[in-house]
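Dear colleague,

Thank you for sharing your sequence with our group. We've completed the structure prediction you requested, and as agreed, I am returning the results in plain text so they can be pasted directly into your records. Please verify that the sequence below matches your submission; if there's any discrepancy, let me know and we will rerun it promptly.
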Amino acid sequence: MHHNMTPYESINAECCCFNLRKVTRAVTQFYDRHLEPADIRATQFTLLLTLTSSSGKTLTDMAEGLVMDRTTLTRNLKPLEKAGLITTTKLPDRRTKGYVLTEKGTQAIEKGVPLWRKAQQQIVGQLGNAQYAQLLEELNRVRSYAHSPKVIRLRDPGHHHSE
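Please find the predicted structure tokens below.
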């Protein structure tokens, strides 16, 4: 426990969730500053990138790949659609719509990539290649553990504790 903290105050100091969110906010703001000339936010840039390799992705496919719930994803896609960076299309194999990049969306990515590269180089440069690779590995381990269906939710109605 940290000095001069109540037991409750120390929770934030050691909480994985709180500390990852704090780091994420700081890193997001860092990338936002770099991407500003492209008139796009880091979170929007990420969403656009997920659409570069497809001729249409469903909300469900995107949500699963991004580890986001569909409601949050929908809320994040609306400004991109309104700005004309993405649009919806009927998918041939399903009766559902898919999201695709527009020409304007592709241009936003092309303008954003060199700005992103500069931000990325600064982050990796601060840590060094080996430590950065190790950081990614650790973050992936934490994500895969937290996202694992093996993690038992205490209020899961289907879970019966038997000992």
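Summary note from our side: The CA atoms of residues 1 and 10 lie 6 Å apart.

Kind regards,
the structure core
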